[in-house]
Design a protein that fits this description.
Number of domains: 1
Strand content: 25-35%
Strand order of the largest sheet: 4-1-3-2-5
Number of helices: 4
Distance between the termini: 33 Å
Radius of gyration: 14 Å
Bound molecules: flavin mononucleotide
CATH topology: Alpha-Beta Plaits
Order of helices and strands: EHEEHEEHH
Structural class: alpha+beta
CATH architecture: 2-Layer Sandwich
Length: 140
């Protein structure tokens, strides 16, 4: 089992972000299911953070598509490594659009955390890392 996490800069106008994300996720949900790729996609302040997990060749194949996708640029890997088990087995590319007026609800944070630590408890450093990346300007 393999996991890749990356950040990138979203391209396009702010008022179109939600619609474009919807389009991406609609395709992703169908395509990822075929190869049992699970994960999440976050959008915050013009940045994307996506985590995908599955068989390594499938992930690299998907990443070669994603890297060429003009809807974002500057794809930068954060994590690209083998993992024991999935952290997001019930998440079929669910996406979270975060902006200044909207933030994670407590329930969402709880669900995310539970989903992650259930399988990846030893990697709490990973969890802390991406929370910090995501939520650096938010307080709860
Ligand atoms: C930020 C971002 C995340 C994406 N995530 C996925 C994904 O998880 N799964 C997927 O199939 N496509 C994803 N895509 C879309 C792919 O880049 C690509 O359009 C899709 O795989 C269809 O490729 P094809 O037209 O060559 O079949 C993503 C695109 C962007 C910009």
């Amino acid at each position: 089992m393999h996991m890749i996490a990356y950040i990138s800069d979203f391209n396009g106008e702010d008022n179109k972000v939600e619609r474009v994300l919807e389009e991406i996720v609609k395709v992703a949900k169908i395509e990822n299911k075929k190869r049992y790729i699970t994960g999440v996609l976050f959008f915050l302040d013009g940045k994307v953070l996506q985590i995908i997990e599955g068989e390594e060749p499938h992930l690299h194949q998907l990443m070669s598509n994603i890297k060429q996708d003009k809807r974002h640029s500057n794809v930068e890997y954060l994590i690209n490594e083998k993992v024991e088990t999935r952290g997001f087995s019930e998440w079929n590319m669910d996406s979270f659009y975060l902006n200044s007026t909207q933030s994670f609800s407590k329930d969402t944070i709880k669900k995310l955390t539970e989903s992650f630590i259930k399988n990846l408890l030893p990697r709490s450093d990973m969890l802390a890392f991406y929370y910090k990346t995501l939520l650096k300007q938010k307080s709860y």
